[in-house]
Amino acid sequence: MVQVCLNGARGAADGVMVPLSPGAMAEAAAEAVAAGATEVHLHPKSPCGQDTLSPRVLAVTLDVVRARVTVPVGVTTGAWAEPDPAARLERVRGWTVLPDHASVNWHEPGAEEVAAALLDRGVGVEAGIWSGTDGAARFALSPLPSRVLRVLAEVTDRDPDTAEASARDLLTALDTGHGRPVLLHGEEDGAWPVLRLAGRLGLATRIGLEDTLLLPTGERALSNAQLVGEALVRYGCRDHFRRHA
Questions:
Q1: Which domains does the chain have, with CATH numbers?
Q2: In sequence order, which ranges of the chain are alpha helices (DSSP H)?
């Protein structure tokens, strides 16, 4: 499975290719799916381009994107979009249109409560375990691992020379018998080395303008679809990832 991560917390300063409006996200999602992406992850944006958990914005965004694609669509619940844990929980409980899944960063305050609320509403949970945090330890002690959709192993090491080793360390820390599928990905200059490792290990992965603005050559990517195409074609991953989807 290759998920496309359309925009992340990026904004207008990151370039016109980063989709910020619902319409732009829908177009980018459709192109990425046509290029081979099997899921979509996006960050709904306020009118000023900031990440938001607003029920109204989420509903509009999901409706517009789902009008263009039929694959699962997930969203973030990152604390930067709503720093107060209680307010974040209320936002999630107030969603009127539900995503197929949502990522919950386990090192953030209130993560377990947000995850439980999503599960109670029938929303799949991607348990975001970041390298360099206590997320793996917290997840191991949680009563929820058997209920999550998958573990989202996020390698925050941006150094291309060390990102693969950091990814292996994170996978070792996660090897606690949770029994859930793992999606492994990196970010910025570490994105491509970690993606290649995911392919070799037969793990699900993701790529998109949230994780990197650059192609493997170092050139600026023109679109999410181009990044997906590079992941599936340049590295010969298309058949490999499909076998392990």
A1: 2-243 (3.20.20.70)
A2: 22-35, 55-66, 85-93, 111-120, 135-141, 163-174, 191-201, 224-229, 238-243
